[in-house]
Amino acid sequence: MEINSKVVEQRSPSALRILIKELYRDKLALVSLIFLLGTMLFVFGTSLILDQKEIVSVDLFAIHEAPSDQFILGTDYGGRDVFGQLIIGTRNSLAIGIMVTLFSGAFGIIYGVVSGYFGGHIDNIMMRILDFFNVLPFLMIIIVFVAIVPSYNTLTFSIIMAAFSWMGIARLIRSKALQEKELDYAQASKTLGTSNLKIIFNQVLPNITSLIIVTMTLNLASNIGLESGLSFLGFGFPENTPSLGTLLSYARNPQTLEFRWWIWIPAAILILLLMLSVRNVGEALRRAADAKQRRG
Question: What is the pLDDT of residue 67?
């Protein structure tokens, strides 16, 4: 019995151990994860000691200064420290990306699993509602909402974005819930009289956790890119609330684009590295969740 239990334990390692092994085999994903965690710790920690009001205040005597000991990445057209804006802007972009992913993911997961589990008329009604939201030009709607809201912060901006970005994960979770509810464990629980809520939250959702984690990780990259794109177009935060997109938008000025690289290139490189890092980690998570695609 002891030998058999040891063999079973060796054949069925925990999900965390599988993920660690997959990351160890995929050096690019491991480096990406270290970069992500290091960047988050640095920007969130450093922003606590930075004075945002001082950083975004205009200084007419320091306009367009090149990088120096006083200003590591120089200044912009308002004499504002670009390095300080980069730190706070990265924090804001990451915070928005994480909150949008959590908000839209939580609603989409609940919506999708309820629709798929109950099926029938409930599923039909919920899917028609989802189809209605899916055909809306959500980017234009977000721009309209941002334009008409008199003042907003990181939380309200994230809620506006999340309200129109939950449909994809809802449809994915619904398709998985349709499969899970037909399996033996769900049917046996129904036969024993277990309530639908307990089956959904105690049995169905735990069995699709890996899919949820992978999907939300990959959505994080797209949400960071969406926020940066909106800010680049001028529909993100105002200039007194920096983000990576606002720094990148300075490149629309031909003089800045050609001669003042220090203003926009660091933000552009950081956006690229963040999105690639999230994608690499997400791909490693996806492989870890699928035994056929694991390395080694």
Answer: 85
